[in-house]
């Protein structure tokens, strides 16, 4: 029961794992690590300080090993244990250790200050990344450094596993090692001050089906242990100390949500087609192997975007060809007989390989990244392409080149792919010689020549996230201009329409793999424009399938014809929202 003497607090964050839960707050007493204190050392003290740092690193590794052993004993899934293994690898990374030791020795400063200095340099690299998933890998490193700092300071690292009663966990932040220890019965949900949708913590929450809201900024200041809290992980709404009447409202919403979720699974095995027979393949986006089971469970008809950057992160060397083969083969076998579209490397070398000594760039989002980086570093590119080709012998694998801006780049990439085929054939290694090749359309120049590009590929995929950013000249993570990030912008809609028409005319498959694909209001427009494949996260698939099965393709085209006459994003949005209630009148939030 809620305490009527406490003030009701309504907060809005980022819902990263759907569901509604009502429970008692458990504040994980960890907080943000205080700024490291600066302390000069005598020359005679540096070696003992280095040893103190190494002891803290060893203690941190031992703690993670104990967590891993406990998880293995409790029968936790391999995907949870794999994340702990990745963190153990970071703690063994020579760059992190050697750079910190170097700062202690050369600057004669204490270990806390040296470690924070190295962390700040690493965070600066990651912050310049455009891909949100990759940016949030910086949080993994920060979590681990904070664990080491706590050990240096002699402070206890409170564990989620110590929670005994069913509770909603509140913390400044949670490491994936925290989330991996959660059990659904004990941890009802969690709330954090910071975080994003593509963090490992968020991904783990979704795999465990624990409602979660992150990015609340001040939840740790406002919530107290024992407070009653409502968590709506679908909308990102959090209510502290709700009244009894509000609790009753959310109990009914929770029941509707649960019933709605069950009802959606009725669509899982039904074909994804409109009422007049237009087939639209619904596929999944994935970054790490943990997401495959969720995609299969929700009826994904393949992987429309397999991001491969994780293979290059948190390591001091390059992935081998065999590592590529193993990763891609595993996904292809699990998704069989459905196709898997593998996107080649989409970041720059300075962001993940310390020994490459790549020059810093003022604007890395438009610099040496993706296909540009690969064409500049052909050995790295060929290793990945050979891995993709060899894996293609074990399933329906396709290869997709990102950030293509012109025909010459595409032809050069295809030429290198053909070289790899000749090499593998000469070595007697199996591969699919007819592997399908496609490109991402995410640069305006590529969109403008889509009619030329479709003559050279088997499929295209419109990456709406970057296409919006480059077309509207905005940085979508810059809070000062984020309001300009408008998927309904008439210019964006016209670009997508022209690309889809070029593909349709050439009988080339066209998909959308950005965030627009997973939202019914945008999917309706994409359907009307002639897009025949949509790729999204697992939890959007059945919602979008329900929309597709509720409308005719002719009606969707008619709606799209109408919106092309509107001058602003707000006008388009208003028109689409006026059409959706008739199709989506049974949505649980209505």
Summarize the structure in short.
The protein has 3 domains: about 10-30 and about 165-265, Phosphohistidine domain (Glucose Oxidase, domain 1), CATH 3.50.30; about 45-155, Enzyme I, Chain A, domain 2 (Orthogonal Bundle), CATH 1.10.274; about 270-585, TIM Barrel. Helix content is about 45%, strand content about 15%.
Poorly predicted regions: 349-358
Number of strands: 16
Residues in β-strands, percent: 5-15%
CATH C-level label of the largest domain: Alpha Beta
Give the averaged pLDDT, no decimals.
86
Please list the strands of the largest sheet in the order they lie side by side: 1-8-7-3-4-5-6-2
- Helical coverage, percent range: 40-55%
Question: How many domain modules?
Answer: 3
Major β-sheet annotation = 8 strands, mixed
**Distance N to C terminus:** 27 Å
Report the CATH topology name of the largest domain.
Answer: TIM Barrel
Number of helices: 23
Give me the Rg, rounded.
Answer: 25 Å
CATH architecture of the largest domain: Alpha-Beta Barrel
Secondary-structure-derived class: alpha/beta
Globally, the shape reads globular
């Amino acid at each position: 029961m809620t305490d009527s003497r406490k003030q009701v607090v309504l907060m809005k964050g980022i819902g990263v794992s759907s569901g509604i839960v009502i429970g008692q707050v458990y504040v994980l007493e960890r907080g943000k690590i205080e700024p490291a204190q600066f302390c000069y050392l005598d020359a005679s003290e540096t070696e003992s300080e280095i040893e103190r740092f190494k002891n803290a690193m060893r203690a941190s590794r031992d703690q993670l090993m104990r967590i891993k052993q406990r998880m293995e004993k409790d029968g936790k899934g391999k995907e949870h244990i794999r994340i702990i293994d990745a963190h153990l690898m970071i703690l063994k990374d020579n760059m992190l250790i050697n750079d910190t030791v170097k700062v202690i020795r050369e600057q004669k400063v204490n270990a806390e200050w040296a470690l924070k200095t190295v962390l700040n340099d690493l965070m600066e690299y990651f912050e310049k990344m455009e891909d949100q998933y990759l940016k949030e890998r910086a949080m993994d490193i920060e979590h681990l450094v904070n664990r080491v700092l706590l050990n240096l300071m002699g402070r206890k690292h409170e564990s989620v596993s110590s929670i005994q009663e069913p509770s909603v966990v509140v913390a400044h932040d949670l490491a994936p090692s925290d989330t991996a220890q959660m059990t659904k019965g004990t941890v009802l949900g969690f709330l954090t001050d910071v975080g994003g949708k593509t963090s490992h913590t968020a991904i783990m929450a979704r795999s465990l089906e624990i409602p979660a809201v992150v990015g609340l900024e001040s939840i740790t200041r406002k919530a107290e242990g024992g407070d009653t809290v409502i968590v709506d992980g679908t909308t990102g709404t959090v209510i502290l100390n709700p009244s009894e009447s509000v609790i009753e409202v959310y109990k009914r919403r929770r029941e509707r949500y649960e019933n709605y979720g069950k009802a959606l699974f009725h669509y899982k095995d039904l074909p994804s087609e409109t009422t007049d027979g237009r087939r639209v393949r619904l596929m999944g986006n994935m970054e790490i192997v943990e997401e495959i089971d969720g995609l299969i469970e929700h009826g994904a008809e393949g992987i429309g975007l397999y991001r491969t950057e994780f293979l290059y992160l948190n390591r001091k060397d390059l992935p081998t060809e065999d590592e590529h083969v193993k990763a891609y083969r595993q996904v292809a076998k699990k998704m069989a007989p459905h196709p898997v579209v593998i996107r080649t490397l989409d970041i720059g070398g300075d962001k993940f390989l310390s020994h490459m000594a790549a020059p810093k760039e003022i604007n890395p989002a438009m610099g040496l990244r993706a296909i540009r980086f690969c064409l500049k570093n052909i050995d790295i590119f060929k290793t990945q392409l050979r891995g993709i080709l060899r894996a293609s012998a074990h399933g329906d694998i396709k290869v997709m080149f990102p950030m293509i801006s012109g025909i010459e780049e595409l032809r050069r990439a295809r030429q290198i792919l053909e070289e790899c085929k000749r090499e593998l054939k000469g070595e007697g290694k199996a591969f699919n010689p007819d592997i399908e090749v496609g490109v991402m359309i995410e640069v305006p120049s590529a969109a403008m020549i889509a009619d030329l590009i479709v003559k050279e590929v088997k499929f295209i995929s419109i990456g709406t996230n970057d296409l919006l950013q480059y077309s509207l000249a905005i940085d979508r993570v810059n809070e000062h201009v984020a309001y300009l990030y408008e998927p309904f912008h008439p210019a964006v809609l016209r670009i997508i329409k022209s690309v889809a028409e070029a593909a349709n005319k050439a009988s080339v498959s066209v998909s959308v793999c950005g965030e627009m694909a997973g939202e019914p209001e945008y999917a309706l427009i994409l359907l009307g424009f002639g897009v025949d494949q949509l790729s999204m996260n697992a939890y959007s698939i059945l919602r979008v399938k329900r929309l597709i099965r509720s409308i005719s393709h002719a009606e969707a085209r008619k709606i799209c014809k109408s919106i092309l006459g509107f001058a602003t994003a707000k006008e388009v949005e208003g028109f689409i929202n006026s059409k959706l209630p008739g199709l989506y009148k049974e949505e649980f939030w209505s």
